[in-house]
Amino acid sequence: MESGLGGADCLLCTSRRSDWKDLKKLVDFDCFAIDRTAAKTLDLYKQLLKDDGEIEKSKDDYNTRQGLISKPLLSSDQHFITITHQYINGVTWILKIIYHLRSSVLNWSERGVIKEQINKARELVLNEIEKATGFRLDKCELTGNSGTSTTGGQGRRFFSFELRKAIVKTVRSNYQKSFEKLLQLYSVILRAVSSTESVDVPKFRQLTVDFSVLIAKEFPWIDYSMTTHSLIFHSAELIFRNNSRGLGEISEDALESTNKDVRNFHLDGFWLELPKKLFEVTKSPQQISPSAGTVEAVNGV
Known about the structure:
This protein has 301 residues and is an all-alpha fold. Helix content is 51%, strand content 1%. It has 14 helices and 2 strands. A two-stranded parallel sheet has the order 1-2. Helix 8 (176-193) packs across helix 10 and helix 9 runs antiparallel to helix 10. The two termini are 38 Å apart.
């Protein structure tokens, strides 16, 4: 890992996974402030570097080493959220929750007999979702590439209000009420973060707190992924840093849209089109998407 933080619970903060469900800490914004920087990580590396070139390590030393396992190669802070990956990984995370609720396995682990139960539930759930929405989610790509069939566009539709009832129906009836609340909150948070409009940060932050408290109280068996943790615990601060605007205009989407161009760069004559193509993806935010209005982060959306 280029950051050198291959053993870290989070690349943005030094909190531990156990903190993420601590009800006292969940309401204290300072507990999850973005406090990792490239400079701090490099300084820590220099402090822990031994004469033999290895990092000094000992048992239960996270408070000292903070997940550092190798020399950091990055010189810039990685203080951002990648929107498309949030949608794709968010679908994967929510689907895993659904599989466990469908099989009544309230344990994040998937081993032995439990794994068989989860796989059966997974097949049923995915078939029901495909029948209701036409989406082939959480399946290996037909191209043979790594990853799943879930796309960013499908992720946005998955979390839409229009499909919410169909998604909730895949869960056993006794879990549907609490799961619907979880899905609704997560959806609102995602849409606010991926917007390009003004966001009421205090209201938005309260939504993220409500979500984390819901997980801690009603779904304590669920583990956050690093991606979902960054969304729930750090998006409010990132939006505040972005002049209280959603992060949609600084997502990775425009950059990834040029991947095909880069792969085809060797084609005859392609270089003639390159200046125009680069201009199209490097326009100012005002040129790409004029902002308008305010995103009200409220329940019931």
